[in-house]
């Protein structure tokens, strides 16, 4: 999860006033949250002289894991005791939720899940079915991000791609865009030891949809 997901959700809640009941689909009780501003602010700035000129370059600082922060139940501003459903906890897969929660939720959040599923259209259609008429769906997913199987890593989406998937199944797309945008110049290092801390550009996008009343 990106820390920017929480910031964007708070911004959207102030604008649209999300209501309970809320579902965190595929979420975790204790999510790992990456605040890339921490890594960016700790980057090392070096001077490089070449051909009579001096250039400033940024390189990752050596302790990249310190960007991970803990925020329990980050969507509690809408509902303190919101429901979290994840197959890792023995819950049904998202594709099976409509049989149990038909038109149940006024707000559904799904963060860093869509890139891992087998069929994004089927998953988003299932979310559509469990949203109450007039209910909102906030979905965030990486656009540029290292390979991270859990257990699979299948897709990357742009904001326009998210609109296609969500509108195809009947959602009204209210807004979408990049809410995470770090370039190589920000010198964020990959924490995977196989990549030796190599610079890691990171971009993430979101979409906010509503099921028509």
Summarize the structure.
This protein is an alpha/beta fold. Helix content is 19%, strand content 31%.
Multimerization state: single chain
> Any idea what the shape is?
elongated
The secondary-structure element order is: HEEHEEEEEHEHEE
Highest CATH level, the class: Alpha Beta
Distance between the termini: 30 Å
Secondary structure: elements and pairs:
Layout: H1 3-16, E1 22-25, E2 33-34, H2 36-41, E3 44-50, E4 53-59, E5 68-69, E6 83-85, E7 105-111, H3 120-130, E8 131-144, H4 159-168, E9 172-182, E10 202-210
Parallel strand pairs: 1-6, 1-7, 7-8
Antiparallel strand pairs: 2-5, 3-4, 8-10, 9-10
Structural key phrases:
213 residues, alpha/beta, Rossmann fold, six-stranded mixed beta sheet, two-stranded antiparallel ribbon, 4 helices, 19% helix, 31% strand, elongated
General description of the model:
This protein has one domain: Rossmann fold (3-Layer(aba) Sandwich). By secondary structure, it is an alpha/beta fold. α3 links the parallel β7 and β8 (131-144). The chain is elongated and about 65 Å long. It starts with a helix and ends with a strand. It has four helices and ten strands; from the N terminus they run αββαβββββαβαββ. A six-stranded mixed beta sheet has the order 6-1-7-8-10-9, with helices on both faces. Strands 2-5 form a two-stranded antiparallel sheet.
